[in-house]
Design goal:
- This protein is an alpha/beta fold.
- It is 49% helix and 11% strand.
- A 6-stranded mixed sheet has the order 1-6-5-4-2-3, sandwiched between helices.
- Helix 10 links the parallel strand 5 (159-162) and strand 6 (184-187).
- The N and C termini lie far apart (38 Å).
Length: 208
């Protein structure tokens, strides 16, 4: 194995070149309109499974771009995703990133009602003014609550990024949105995470 000398400012570019080369070697051809999102997820995780499991509703990328341009907010279910999303870029269009998971009143209400903080956080997010994009990378209960509110007719998200990671209710919670009317980017299966949720947001933010 030969050591590859790459200048620091060129590491990301070289990484994407390697990803493109290895996808080609594997005979995987990504749709042009979504390839840059999938590649950023692979870049973030070094996991090529995203080439086959990351799923986009029709026109998802353009829909999310237009929501961001219109000043939509992004709500995440972890402070890790909150930290990872490019807030400066989003603020250029009038949007903010929100995470209610660490709020003391959310924790207190969740304990009192016997619910997860993610569930209560989604209820708080539903009260935000304007359009909301949800970037869920950890808690399947967040997706379940969003779907419940949709079924009740009390709230409908404008866009859902559903990439929670784990074993309990994760696969099922993601599948709730596959046949819904809500535009989405979903990673089917168990894999995902806050870093993937942030990577998807940033991929689209950087493409505007």
């Amino acid at each position: 194995m030969n050591f590859e000398t790459v200048k620091p400012e060129e590491i990301e570019k070289r990484s994407f070149e390697i990803i493109t080369e290895e996808l080609k070697e594997a005979g995987i051809e990504l749709p042009e309109e979504t390839a840059f999102v999938t590649k950023r997820c692979i870049h973030t995780s070094a996991d090529f499974d995203y080439a086959t499991t990351l799923t986009f509703s029709p026109g998802a990328v353009d829909i999310m771009r237009n929501l961001i341009k219109g000043g939509a907010h992004i709500v995440t279910d972890t402070n890790m995703a909150l930290s990872g999303i490019n807030k400066k870029k989003l603020s250029d269009f009038g949007g903010e990133v929100h995470c209610f998971m660490a709020d003391e009143d959310v924790a207190a209400e969740a304990k009192e009602r016997g619910l997860t903080r993610a569930t209560v956080s989604m209820e708080r997010a539903a009260k935000l003014k304007g359009d909301v994009i949800f970037a869920i990378g950890n808690a399947p209960t967040a997706l379940i609550k969003l779907h419940e509110m949709m079924e009740e007719g009390s709230f409908c998200p404008k866009f859902v990024i559903g990439v929670p990671v784990g074993f309990v209710n994760v696969v099922w919670a993601k599948e709730l949105f596959i046949n819904s009317d809500v535009p989405y980017i979903i990673n089917r299966g168990r894999k995902g995470g806050s870093n993937i949720a942030a990577a998807i947001c940033n991929a689209i933010l950087y493409s505007i």
